[in-house]
Every structure is written in structure tokens, then in C-alpha cells.
Amino acid sequence: MAYSYFGNTSAKEAKLLINIEAHLILLNQLFKTTTDEDKWVSNSSLQLRYVELLKESKLLNSNEMELIAKNARTKVSFLKDLGLVDFENLKITEIGNELLQLINEKKFEEKNEFLQIDLVSLFFLKYFFKYKKTHDIEDMFLKYLYIFKKLEGKLTYEQFYLLPLISNYEDIDTFVALLKNGDNDLSLLFKGFIDTNERDKQRKETFLADYAKNGVITDLEPFSTSKGTNFVQDLPYVLEIFKRIKDKSYSKADIRNLFIKKIDGENNDFRKLYLPTMLGTTSLAIKKNTYMHLYRKLFTIIRSKGYDELLEYFFDLIYTSRYFNNLRDYKNQNTYYLSLTGIFTFINGEVKISEIFNVILKSSQYEEILKSISETSITKDSLNDLFEDEDVKATFAAMGVDNTHDLNMFQYNKDKEKLQELLDTTFTKEKVKELIPLFKIRNDKRIQDEVTVRATVPTIFEYITALSWYYIDNNNIDFVLKAGLSLDTNMLPKSHAVGGSSDFEIKYDDHTLMIEVTLTESTNQRRAEMESVSRHLGNILLELNEEQQEKSYGIFIAPHLNKNVLNDFRTRQLSYWENETDYIKGMNIIPLDTDDVVNILDSNIMYAELRPKFYEIIEKDNDWGSKWYYDEVKPFIENLNS
After folding, report:
1. Which parts of the chain sit beneath pLDDT 70?
2. Is CB count within 10 Å lower at the N or C end of the chain?
3. What is the DSSP code string of 514-572?
4. What is the secondary structure of 465-488 as a DSSP string?
5. Which of 486, 550, 480 is nearest to 512 (CA)?
């Protein structure tokens, strides 16, 4: 069985984007310090220095750093597959430097006008046409896109799951026909691969000959994987249990050892890797009310076969299980990598290509267009000439799109629809209120499980704060879309190694509101926020006319509020802020903690009604920031529900 997929299963990265960017930035720093003696090999001084760089940067969490410390070479090998890093010569490649420049210049905040994806996504889209690991087929990404074209721009999750099998078919249209058949028996399909693959056929014959000669498995090599025989040590015992079940000579311990998670403190690999396939499930949940059903099913399968048939079944079970498990891993890898391009959406059991990109696939000249994308420069207007393609022009015209402005509005409205559905179904007001307190106790795992594992918790906090303001500001969905958040195609947050702005600027008719959020606390909050918040607000105010300046202000939101940060913000009422040509005197900042935000949401009072009250609080005489917050701001918020 051959597989063609993106990525490297030794480096499974859900937060792939930020990990690529972070490693690239840090390796670039590291390579500037190398000497002629340095080599990128396991446990070398160079790798140990890299681990120290990771710790200092805090770009990756402690668990990720521990994994890299154990095997730095393996954990960053995907950068070599992507063509970004040359570890042999200890340098960032030309392509890698191009990505570094895009990251450092925050080009992820700019969109390509034609494809309506950010420029970092365009980078990955462009270079995926050239992506090839050692054993991959040629033009793998192009062939993937051909399949999406033939299936009208969308695949079910099962079809997407089978995508890595593409290299087993000389005729791609035969593979397309297989995918279109929605009633595939995967076990039967995989058994067919065993019977036709020369290596697997030979291994099966070796196993059967070994068993015929010795009456037990003495040679584990037919079952070995790329990791040797680590996960097959128990197979001789498992086959003996199968025989005992067939002969009705089994013990209770035999059956228990098939189903329990650990045997003598060691993981039960048969239960984890092979038993689910045997019992027709992808996730083996054994409970009191299901145990007897699974037990009987196991017995029925084994006793329905003759002895020779049972041996063949046993071998096929091990291999088909591997196919299932491998494809599950490769499906995840493809999901992580294809998400980088910004043209795929993974939702509701389907993988869809963007409507704009699907217009390209429908063109009679789509191969030429894809070639031009693979050679394009990474700029905002680099693909605008594609409007000249007659098929593209006609399809867009039917969609009401005649130019880049129309295209931008088309995508904006599509994003708006997706975000509205997300708010109506996933991030309701009640769900947002449930999530906000998790940031105060830093239940990071649950936060990421509930929102997305592909973004850091600080990024998710910005996102959830924006959704909170959507509800506070009378369901102002345009604010969320214009807040400068980095969102994926599912309208969920994604993180970059070089952070964007953590403040939201909302322009109303007569004033501007700045909302700044942070997860920092104590000394770090003083260091990070005291200057930056006032600088951001001051620069915003300098752009406004005098009447708007007087009515504009900032809101600072954090799970914990440092008293001296509160004191500093209050003194800004009397501070000057200036640029080369103008100045302002005084700026107003209202601090809120996450409990305050939940109380406002609970009150169902909209921003238009809150705003006059905020002005009243700002005008209070108390200039001692911490006392002003605890005596005026917090009591007002708490009394909203009384």
C-alpha cells in the first residue's frame, strides 16, 4: 500500500501555522550563531542551544518544548519537507526567507484581491504545487485539486479520508470513480490491496509458512512496521487466544486481555490498534452495557471461520487495521496542511473548496490558471489578470461579480453568513458566557477543545472578547469581521508567531471606541500594557476631529487587573500625547475584568444604553485608579442585573 499525503506523522501539529512560523524565526536566529563544527544531529550542542532558544522565546508551550528537546531533529523535519530549511547546510532556504519576510512584515493582514485569501495563505498555496516528499507521486497537490474538480468542489469526510490512496491508481479517473461510489466496503477494499501488493502478499505467505511449520508465530518480521516490531510483540499470544476461542478452551483472563487497556502495566496495542477494526468501529468505548455485545461479536467472528481461514483473517485484520489507522493519521495531516492554503473549509462532514477557487476549477483553462498561481508573486494584486479568462469572467458575472471590489464584497458576505451560523449554533451568548471565566483560571485545554486547537489561548481570548462585543453591541457582526482578527475558513481564530494588533477599533457615527485585551497579569501586565494601551488610544485620538476626540475612549479587558495599571490608566486623563504635528490632552480608559464582561452580557443591556453611564463614571472625581475601579466601575457593572 502506498500513500501520498502532506506532512510528516513524526511531527503531528494541530497548530501547524504558528509552529512553522515560530520554528522558522528561531532557526534563523540559531543559524546566525553556528560555527564550522556545528551539525544538526540528535543531542548535538546545536540542538541543545535550539531548545534553549525555544524556552526563551515562549513561542511554544512547555509540552511542545519538551517533545522537541527529546528529538529536535524529528520534530522540525517537516520544515525540510516544506523546503523551508536546509538542515545539512544550516540555513534557511530561499523559499523559507520569502516566508520569513511575509511573516515579519505581517502580510497575513493583507489579502490577495482575486483569491480573497491572506498573503501567507497564498504563499502556501503557491508552493504546495511543488510539494513532494521522497516517495510521493509527482504533482500530488494538482491531482488532489483534480479530484475536487471532478467531485464538484467538495468531498465527504470518507472521500477525503481515502485521498492518500491516490498513488495506488495509475488512472486517476479510476480512483475518482471509486470515490464517487458512496457505498465502499473499506475492509474489502483494503483486503484487495493486501492480495495485489507484492510486498504484503509475500509477507502473508511467510507468516502462513512459519505458522504451518511451528504451530505458533515465531517470526514477527511479516508484521513489522517502520518502527520495527514494537507494536506486534503480543500478536503470537493474541492468535493463541483466537484459537482458544475457536476451540472453546479460553479463560476469562484471555478475554480480559483482549479488551483491557494495559497488560502488566504496558499498553495493550492489540486493543488500541486492531480490535476496533475487528469489531467495526473507529473508537472502542467499552462499557458495562456494551461489553456483552462486543464479546459476542468477537466470538461470532472467530467461530464462523475454519482454522486456515482464521489464520488468513488474522493477518488481514492486522494489515487492514493499519490501513485504517494510517489513513486516519494522514487525513489529519492533510487537514492541517491544506488549511494553510485558505481555500479549503472543513465543516459538517464535508471538505469544500472555496467558491472563488471552484470558479477556477470550472474553467476550461484551469490547468493554465493553476500553473500561473504556482508561479505568481505573493502580492495583493498578483492574480487580477485572471479576470480576463473568458470562463472565469462568465461564471463571476453569473454571481454578480465584475471586479475586485465585487469579489471582496462577495467573499465578505459569504464570511458573514458562515460567522452568523457559527454564532447561532456554536458560540451563542450562553456559550460565550460559559467560556469567558475559563480564561481567569487558565483552563487552556478546555478553551482550545471548545474553540479550536489551532490557535493559542491569547488569540482565542481576543476572539471570544470580539464575540462578546457582538452581543453587547446589539449583534454587530460587521464589527467582528472588521476587527482585524486572523480567521480561518471556518471563521475560527488562527495564530501567527508575529502577533497582530490586540486592540479593536470601532468607529461609530460620533465617536471611536478602542477595546484592548490581554491575558498578562501582575508585573507583566504593567510592563506590557501601561505604555502600549495609551499609545494605541493616543494615536487613534490624534486622527479624529476635536468633537470626536472628546467622546472617544478606550476599554481595557483582562482576566486580572493590576492595581498599578489601573492607577496609570486613570492618570492618563491629565496626560498629553503628541505626534510631529498635533497633540491631545487627556485620554479615558475604562478597565474591565472578565467577570465584568459576563455581568454585562447577563444584563442584556446594549452598548448604546451603557455608553452614557460610562461617560458618567469617567467624569467621577476619584483620581486614584484602583479605588476608582473598585468603588465606581465594578459596583456599576455588578448592579446592572439588580
Report:
1. 10-13, 58-74, 134, 136, 281-291, 499-502, 522-528
2. C
3. EEEE----HHHHHHHHHHHHHHHHHHHHHTS-HHHHHH-EEEEEESS--HHHHHHHHHG
4. HHHHHHHHTTS-HHHHHTS---B-
5. 550
Three-class DSSP category at 595: helix
Residue 205's pLDDT is: 95
Q: How far is CA 569 from CA 440, 562, 564, 624, in A?
A: 21, 11, 9, 10
At residue 346, the 3 state secondary structure works out as strand
Q: In this structure, is the dihedral angle defined by the CA atoms of residues 323, 325, 329 and 331, taken in order, positive or negative? A: positive
Q: Quick one: which of 566, 541, 568 has its CA closest to 633?
A: 566
Name the grid cell of 462. Answer: 481576543
Say how far apart CA 294 and CA 567 lie, in whole Å. 65
Closest CA to 131 of 139, 123, 119: 139
The C-alpha cell that represents 281 in the structure block: 468501529
Query: What separation in angstroms does the CA of 231 have from each of 71, 177, 224, 235, 506?
Result: 20, 35, 8, 9, 57
In this structure, what is the dihedral angle of CA atoms 541, 543, 549, 555, given to the nearest 10 degrees? -40
| Gap between the Cα atoms of 82 and 86, Å rounded | 10
Cell of 351: 471538505
- Nearest partner of 30 among 55, 47, 11, judged by Cα: 47
pTM of the prediction? 0.88
Q: Return mean pLDDT, the chain.
A: 89
Distance, CA of 237 to CA of 145 (rounded, Å) = 45
Grid cell listed for 349: 462532514
Write out the three cell numbers for 560.
486580572
CA distance 186 to 101: 45
pLDDT in tens, 422-463: 999 999 999 999 999 999 999 999 999 999 998 999 999 999
Q: Which three cell numbers stand for residue 176?
A: 475518482
Q: Can you tell me the distance from the alpha carbon of 519 to that of 463, in angstroms, rounded to the nearest whole number?
A: 13
Q: Using CA atoms, how far apart are residues 82 and 89, in angstroms rounded to an integer?
A: 16
Place of cell 495583493: 380
Domains recognised in the chain with CATH numbers = 106-136+363-402 (no CATH), 216-321 (no CATH), 412-641 (3.40.91.50)
Q: In the numeric block, which cell numbers belong to residue 99?
A: 516566508
Phi-psi region of 349 (alpha: psi -120 to 50; beta: other; left: phi over 0): left
Task: Give the residue among 299, 288, 220, 289 at the shortest CA–CA distance from 258.
Answer: 299
What pLDDT is stored for residue 11 in this prediction? Answer: 62
Closest CA to 271 of 243, 298, 299, 311: 298
**Degrees to nearest 5, angle at CA 64 with 503 and 339:** 60
If you ran DSSP here, which 8-state letter would residue 294 be given? H
Q: Among 112, 130, 131, which Cα is nearest to 121's? A: 112
Cα dihedral value 376, 377, 379, 384, nearest 10: -30
CA distances from 641 to 327, 474, 507, 516 (A): 52, 18, 28, 25
Euclidean distance between CA atoms 343 and 348, whole angstroms: 16
